[in-house]
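Researcher: Re-running this chain for the archive, since the previous output was lost when a drive failed. Same request as before.
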Amino acid sequence: MIPVLFIMGMPRSGSTLLERLIGGFTNTTVIGEQQLVWKQGFLENTLCTCGNPVLCCPFYQRARRNAMELDPDLAGTADLALFARYMVHTLEMHYAHRLRGVPQMYLRGRMSNRSVNWPRFRHALLTWYSAVSQAGDGSVIVDSSKGPAYAHLLGTIPGLNVGYIHLVRDSRAVAFSRTRTKRRPEVLRSVETLPTETPWRTAINWDVNLALSSLLSTRRPNRVIQLEYEAMVRQPEAALAAVANLATRLGMPQLGALDFNGMPARYHSVAGNPIRFDRSPLRIEVDDEWRTRMKPTDRAVVTALTAPLLLRHHLLGARAGRPRGKTLRPSR
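Model: Regenerated structure tokens:
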């Protein structure tokens, strides 16, 4: 069984920070938003966190060779381009990115979507994660793809031992962050920015994302833990202890000692927050600009649309205090 720790949540929820924290464990391999590796990595050849373009990254070159050895017919050629195009096509056609595709992942027989070759698609993903696991020397894979639909999909693949970390951040913080423009440093041939979104649309997506992620907790209750971003920033050690306990409970390899001396030892992320490229000792600084800079009308709209779930997660009222920043130094 291939051990995978999967981070669920909304974009701009702190998943890159969390993946870097988990990457501090010596027995992990952080692959970032692996759902995007096919298009952004192999087809667009964006910059890997290690500093090399993905096609030149030694880690992904090893994974590519491993994939072809595991299933030569799936890879197609010595060049992984055909495999990448196949995966991009199936991800788009088979609703892996889309919430409405989730029911199809669990249906059987006549009620399933016959246009989707789910067994072949699952086999392709299992082959790839097996190849990545070999390239990472069998360490625990940390995937921060976030999307609940993709999370549900990985959970239906025999051969993957998936533990889920549901990261929840205040909807108003997410909405404010989604209005800000941030450059994508991994894009080498042009200047591109991370996607932006209107606050009201982010609020609706936040509700749907949280509901579908919570559904996974119902289907696989022993495999999901929930972390609040604000609590994680206050007490990162407690959050990491919860992650380590989850891995142990699921029979994954021991995550090992913690070391925050710069970048994680195995860090090959293809997408996410630009802090992926910061090689200095990790400093946790809460991003709470929304408290003072968010437009009152936007704040009111987002609060109204998400209030029930904000209350459920203690993100409204007296308990929703401001976290403090801190620097994590290497363990001795």
